[in-house]
Design brief:
binds zinc ion; about 550 residues; alpha/beta; TIM Barrel; ten-stranded mixed β-sheet; five-stranded parallel β-sheet
Length: about 550
């Protein structure tokens, strides 16, 4: 989902946001070339930006030596009992770089989490007073405290008053973020996206998102390299499933997207990126049916799934072509737009949705088709929420993470939305209604965040908010957590390793203060994040990237 800050917006028409038309002009005319906006680029507006960059850069240089000492710092969890200080296995220790180790709170061969409430990700009710026994990165046993014999030498952690959930599986994540102007929206500036290879991996992990699918890549080589750095322990971060570069047709408004020239090139591109390490693809708004079909065929021939944020191709058409997954939901589906022509993203994209009735027969038929053809929907309510006045509540942790230019940009747009006329139709509500109906009809809903828009959705924090919004949409907290954990793991083909808490799974789990099965907002109270049985300190991770989002 992009980009209203410097450029045309792809799913909400400009009038709804009540900006100057110049700032947010839509640019989806049939067959149009990509934006040729040649206005002054944001740099001239940066003013003190360069000086600020230098200052922050120096500040970060100063931070680095402090981040290096590997000694585990005080844990956030209230009652960590230092069991006999079990020696770290040489193998695990050597796998982590000094930088990664500096964020580790607990690393022991055997760890017992005692007296904890378990929300296992299957949707089953929470169970109280459980012990989770972690052994060399795996959950060895999980059950009532009295039934689990804790081996001698295990590191014991008393988690009374805490809950564990599976690590979140974020299905619409990115390693990039809208480029900042530092001066709010700049008329005529192209929509550019900057890679956040430093801040985003740390924020995902800090928020308890232990697995991500990148759902469209701006710098696919960088994303693949980041995955390697994380998997080899050189950098802290989530497990990454890297999506290839966007499969976009003619008419892209993001200059960083390649525009496909037809099905032959699509097949070549898909095969090249599978050879290079991509494990999924995302089709984008201007792709033609022929190109999408070629992409699906080439990907499926090699066991790889395709998702789409579509506009030129309707959801029903895409389902018939064999797509596996659709992003964002009905808000971006143009098949009910009376002006829709085949293979063209209509110029008034986004306008027709106001009149679409979720209960109507055509929409219900579309839902049935998706369900019958096993096409999953990725919910990204959290990005739509930012276009509602004064939502989400402004959070200090978001402001802390943002660089000054990005903070300025974010607050400028947020204020304009708050001061503008209220939207005539609450699209967030409509999308919620659609997703709830889709699941009740038997559809598979995945959860993601999409850290784009005007910058109000940050890595990890957005995934947590997304689960809260699923509850607002009508799902129970247990269902919402299930959608954000097991459903993603199933879709990725990883459900025998991650996504649920039971013996034999990898120990990817999040320790929360409170009880998210009753109060979903407790999902933000992350105190420890276990990935492969190693616990990371979320506060240290987040503090290490204060002011960095928007820079790197
Ligand atoms: Zn996206």
């Amino acid at each position: 989902m992009f980009i209203d800050r410097n450029a045309p917006h792809d799913y909400l028409p400009a009038h709804r946001l009540s900006f100057d038309a110049e700032t947010l002009v839509t640019n989806t005319a049939p067959g149009s070339q990509r934006s040729t906006a040649s206005g002054p680029w944001a740099r001239r507006h940066y003013g003190g930006f360069v000086r600020l960059t230098t200052r922050l850069f120096l500040a970060f240089l100063l931070l680095i030596p402090r981040a290096l000492p590997a000694a585990a710092q005080t844990l956030q969890v209230a009652a960590v009992l230092a069991g006999s200080a079990a020696a770290l296995s040489a193998q695990e220790k050597s796998a982590l770089s000094p930088v990664t180790k500096s964020f580790v709170a607990i690393d022991a061969p055997v760890i017992a989490l005692q007296h904890v409430r378990v929300v296992d990700g299957t949707g089953a009710p929470a169970t109280e007073n459980q012990t989770v026994l972690i052994d060399h990165g795996n959950i060895r046993e999980l059950g009532p405290d009295a039934s689990i014999k804790v081996p001698e030498g295990a590191k014991i952690v008393d988690l009374s008053g805490h809950s564990v959930i599976p690590g979140l599986v974020g299905m619409h994540e990115h390693m990039y973020y809208p480029a900042a102007s530092g001066a709010g929206p700049v008329p005529g500036a192209p929509a550019l996206l900057d890679e956040m290879g430093f801040s985003f991996p740390r924020l995902y992990l800090a928020a308890g998102v232990t697995t991500i699918r990148t759902a469209g890549s701006i710098e696919p080589y960088t994303d693949l390299a980041l995955k390697k750095l994380i998997d080899t322990g050189q950098q802290p971060g989530p497990k990454m499933h890297v999506t290839g570069p966007y499969l976009e047709g003619l008419g892209s408004f993001v200059p960083q997207f390649h525009e496909l020239s037809g099905p032959e090139e699509t097949t070549r591109m898909v095969n090249y990126w599978i050879d290079t390490g991509a494990t999924s693809f995302k089709a984008f708004m201007h792709i033609t049916r022929a190109e999408l079909s070629a992409a699906i065929k080439a990907a499926h021939a090699r066991g790889i799934k395709v998702t789409g944020h579509l506009c030129s191709v309707g959801f029903s058409e895409a389902a018939d072509l064999g797509i596996d997954n659709l992003e964002h939901g009905i808000i971006v589906d143009e098949e009910f737009n009376p002006h829709k022509q085949l293979d063209v993203c209509p110029p008034d994209a986004g306008n027709a949705i106001e009149k679409v009735d979720i209960e109507s027969a055509p929409v219900q038929a579309m839902i049935r088709k998706l369900v019958d053809k096993h096409v999953a929907i990725t919910s990204t309510l959290v990005i739509f929420e930012t276009f509602q006045p004064n939502r989400p509540p402004l959070q200090q942790r978001v402001l802390q993470a943002l660089s000054q230019p990005s903070r300025t940009d974010y607050l400028a747009v947020r204020t304009k939305i708050a001061e503008g006329p209220p939207p005539s139709v609450n699209l967030l509500k409509k999308e919620m209604q659609f997703e709830y109906a889709f699941v009740k009809a038997g559809g598979v809903l995945l959860s993601g965040e999409d850290p784009t828009g005007y910058g109000g959705v940050l890595a990890g924090y957005g995934d947590q908010r997304q689960v809260e919004l699923l509850v607002e949409a009508g799902f129970s907290p247990l269902e919402a957590i299930h959608i954000a954990t097991q459903n993603g793991a199933d879709f990725l083909g990883e459900s025998d390793r991650i996504g649920t808490l039971k013996s034999g799974r990898r120990a990817d789990l999040v320790v929360l203060k409170g009880d998210p099965s009753r109060k979903i907002e407790d999902i933000e109270n992350v105190e420890l994040v276990f990935k492969d049985g190693i616990a990371y300190d979320p506060k240290k991770l987040a503090d290490s990237v204060a002011g960095a989002v928007g820079f790197h």
